[in-house]
Amino acid sequence: MWDLGPSDPRLVGPYRTRAVLGEGGMGRVLLATTTDGRLAAVKLVRGAFAADDDSFRQRLHREALAARRVDSPHTARVIGADATAGVPWLAYEFHHGPTLGQALQAAGPLDTDTVLHLAAGLATALRDIHAHNFIHRDLSASNVLLTDDGPIVIDFGIARPTGLPDDTTDTRIATVTQTGMIIGNPGFMSPEQAMGATQLTPASDIFALGTVLVLAATGHNPFQGATSEQTRLNIMTKEPDLDRVPPRLRHIVEPCLTRDPTQRPDAPTLLTTLGPPPHPHHPWPDPIAQLTETQQAEIRRYTQPAPTKILPGPRDLNPTKIFTRWRGSAAVQRDAPVAVESIVEPAADVSIRRPRLDRRATSLLALALACVAALVVAVPWAIGGDDATPDGSPEAADTFSARIEHSYGTTVIKTRPKRVATWGWGATEAAIALGTFPVGVAGKGSGRGLMPWVADAYRAKGVGLPVVFDPDSAAGKVPYEQIFSTAPDLILAPYSGLSREQYDKLSAVAPVVARPDSVDMWEGVVAVTAAALGLEGRGREILADADAYLSALGKQHELTGLTFAAIVHNRLEREVTVFSETSPPVRVLERLGMKLAGSVADLAPTGGDVMYDLDYEDLDKLDCDIVVVYSNSREMADRDLANKDLKALPAFAAGRIAQVADADGWDALASPTVLSIRSPAGMAKLARSLAQATPK
C-alpha cells in the first residue's frame, strides 16, 4: 500500500480514493471509501484494454452486472462499475487480510491442516463462480486474501458464457480481454491458457488452484523456472514438481494439475474429496494475524478518521442494522396527523471511525448506537384492539385504516396490506412474527442472502422465499427497481435510515412507514409494524411471549441475579468496547434476569453514550461475575481467549467467560429480534455459555 500518485484520481464514481493497493494484469487497484466510510477496492482498467474499443466497454458493463450475481462467502463481490467512464473501473468489496503471497513471505510454507482449510475455501469460491458460468482466469497467490473469515478470492477476470442462455450446459467461456491477449500470472496459468487458448473452461481455474496449494504447502511453485517465460514453458511441457508436497495433500493437488483439462476434477468433486475440514474455524498462523493488524493500521492512517462524538441515538449504515438518529417524542396513532419536523441528516463522514475487527465487527459496534441513551422507553401502541378503526366503533370494524407518524410526517394506510416489502432492521422479523410474510426483504448486512432464522420461518410456513433486495454497497442506495418489482401495497422501513428523497420516491408506489421518533428498538419495531398491519394486540402478545421465553431461559440456567459486563475486544487499540445499560446486548441479557455490573456504570464517561472504550490499563476495574465477549468469527473468538492482556479483567482471569463466537450469533444477538433470539445461534446458545461461566 502506498500514496496516491499525481495522476491517480481522487474520486472514482461515488468512491473517494485513499491509497494505492497494487497493480495487476488488468489495471491499478486503489483503496477507496464510500460516502458512509465503507472500504472498497477500485480497479482502474488499463487503457490497453479499453482504448477506442466500444465492444470491450459494452461487454465490461454487461458482465460486471452479471458478476454481481456471484454469491459466495469466499469471493469479494463486484459492488460497482462504470464501463462508460474515460477510464473504466470496477469496485469490489474490501476485505482485511494479506494476500497469500505476502503471508508466505512472512510465515513460510503453511502446515497441512492450514492448507486444507485454504483448499476448502478456494474450492468453494470456484464452485460458486463456475455455477454462474464464470471463470476466474487469474487465481494466484496475489489474488487470494487470508481474512479472519477464511480465504477470499479477489479480482476475478470478468467472464461470461459465449452467446449462450443462462441454463446452458455448455461451459465455454469468453472473456472481456482482446482476442489473442494472454492475461494472467504466468506462474499460475493452465497449459491451455499458457498456449493462448481463447476458449477456456472452469478446468483452467482448477489447474491454477492446484498450483496455489502446492505453493502454499511447500513455498515452491511446481513449475518454477528461471524466468517467467521458462515457467510458462514448463507449464506447457513438464510435469509438476510435487516431491515436497505432504502425503495428505498430494491426492488433492495431483488430479488438479493433470495436463488434460477434461481429466481434472470440478470444484464440487474437489470439495467432496476434501471432506469436512479438520478444524472448520482454523486460525491462520500468528505472523499472518500480525500482517492483518499492520494493514489495518495502514488503512487507518490513509483514511485519517476524524474524531467523532457518538450521539445517543441510532444510525443506519446497512439495511439490516439500526444506525439512524431520531428526535422528538414517540408517536404511532390512529387519529389526526400531527406535524412532524423533517430531519435533514448530515452527510456521513467518509472516514471509518475505527477499523476494528472487520466490517461485520464494525457493524456491531455501530449497532450499539441503536438504543437511545438514558431514554425512558415509551412503546407507541395505538389505542384500540386489533382491526379497530380510528373511532373504535364495532360498526366500522371491517374498514381498515391506520395512521403511522414518523420523522417525515404521517403515513395513512387505507386498506389492509397484502403485499408487504421491508427495508431496514427488524421489520421483516416483526412482520413474520405477526403472521405476515413479506414479498421482498432486505438481506444480511453482508449482502449474502436472508438471515438464517428468516429463511427458516418461510420454509416452516411452506411459502416461497421472498425477493432479497441486494443494495449497492455504495452507502445509502435503495434498490428501487427491486422493491418496485414486488408490487408492494406497503413498504415497512421504520429502522432503515431512509433519506427524505428516498422516502418520497418509495411513497410514489406504496405507503411507506419511515423511522419513528425516539422509540426503543426492541419493542418499537414490533409496535410500529403491528400498528401498520392492524395487529396491535397480537404485537403486545409477541413481546410478552419473548420476555417470558428469555425469563424462562434465565431461570433454567440459574442466571438470575448474576452480574455481567458485555464487551468487544479491540486489539489494535489495546482496549475493549464496553456496552452500557441502554445497548441492545445488555437489554436482552437483563431479560434473562441478570444484572449489569455496577462497575460498567462507574467506569462510563459522562454523556450517556451506549458504549464506551476502556483501555487495557483500566481492565482490572471492570469487576463482574461473568464477562460476555462478542466476536464475529471462531478465529477471532479463539484469538480473544488466548489474549494475555484480557486477563486483567477479573472475570476473564478466573475463566468466567461467555462468548458469542460466530457470524450468525453476532447477527442474532447484537441486533436481537423476536425471531433471532430463538434461532439456533440465539439466546439459548448464549445462555448455555453463560451457565458454563457461572461462578462455582
Describe the protein.
By secondary structure, the protein is α/β, with parallel strands linked by helices. The protein has 23 helices and 23 strands. The strands form seven sheets. Strands 1-2-3-4-6-5 form a six-stranded antiparallel β-sheet. Strands 18, 19, 20, 21, 22 and 23 form a six-stranded mixed β-sheet that branches. Helix 15 links the parallel strand 16 and strand 17. Helix 4 packs antiparallel against helix 9 (267-274) and helix 11 (359-367) runs parallel beside helix 22 (663-670). Residues 158-182 and 306-398 have low confidence and may be disordered.
Distance between the termini: 50 Å
Give me the CATH architecture of the largest domain, please: 3-Layer(aba) Sandwich
Give the tally of β-strands: 23
Shape label: globular
